[in-house]
Amino acid sequence: MPMSPIRGIRTFRYAVFFDGIDDYAVIEPFTVYGWPEITIQEWIYFYHPKDINVFSHPSSLGDGWSGEPMIDHYSPYFSAYPYKYVRFWGCREKGTCTDYQYNIIKYVNQWINVVRRFDSTRNISYFVNGVREYSNTIPSDYKTVLEWNPDTATRPALYRRFVLGMGTYLVTPMKMLQSNLLIYSKAPSESELRHNMVYPWNPVRDGLKVWLLAHPDYVKDIDNDGVLEWIDLSGNNNHAKLYGATLATLIKSPLR
């Protein structure tokens, strides 16, 4: 049974704010090579496209560029104004790539729940607010980010990181709020994805590799290097370093 849309995304009290100038967060090292499947589920607020630059990436795996052989993206994506996509790259050995994308421009200036799910049948599906809005199958002769070994990549460092807010190679920042992010090494069922939407503070744990929840308890300098960490609650220590990005309080406590 397909998921039915919920009436709206929860209003979050806290979010990490990226100013669209120079803010970003990075998990490094982080590689998904060899994973059987992958899913990223995010609660995110995109500002109007006029507030962002061309080639801005809310989040990306690989942090690369399609002109290089075998480079893969896994990210929501703003291309030239006024387009906005979720997308996934599949590439052949000689750099022949197909961009599996879906335009979600109608969701700017509001909280949305976005899911990118790639499963063992090579199906890539995008869900927005609980509705499957795109589905396609990537041919077996096209490799994805799960199948490209970072140790033999043209730019191996680019395959060992996950970036929020902006990339660090040919990518410019964007203005956004991020309240919650889940990365799985599996393809959760639609009922599991719906559970995560309804209970963002109690997600499905099976296959969970990264869980970033915006809250004052989980944004702090835990290694005393002067840079804040967005603490990973999955237990895998995939903490995100915050460079310029700050914790914002969206709903104030009532006066007593």
Note down, in words, how this protein is organized.
The protein has 256 residues and is mainly beta. It has one domain (14-249): Sandwich (Jelly Rolls). The protein is 4% helix and 37% strand. It contains one helix and 17 strands. The protein has one helix at residues 190-198, and strands at residues 14-19, 24-27, 38-46, 59-61, 74-78, 84-91, 97-103, 111-118, 123-128, 131-137, 162-164, 175-184, 208-213, 219-220, 229-230, 240-243, 246-249. Strands 1, 3, 8, 9, 10, 12, 13 and 17 form an eight-stranded antiparallel sheet that branches.
CATH topology: Jelly Rolls
The low-pLDDT segments are 1-8, 52-56, 63-84
What is the average of the pLDDT values?
78
The main sheet comes to:
8 strands, antiparallel
Alpha-carbon distance between the two ends = 46 Å
Radius of gyration: 17 Å
Order of helices and strands: EEEEEEEEEEEEHEEEEE
Number of domains: 1
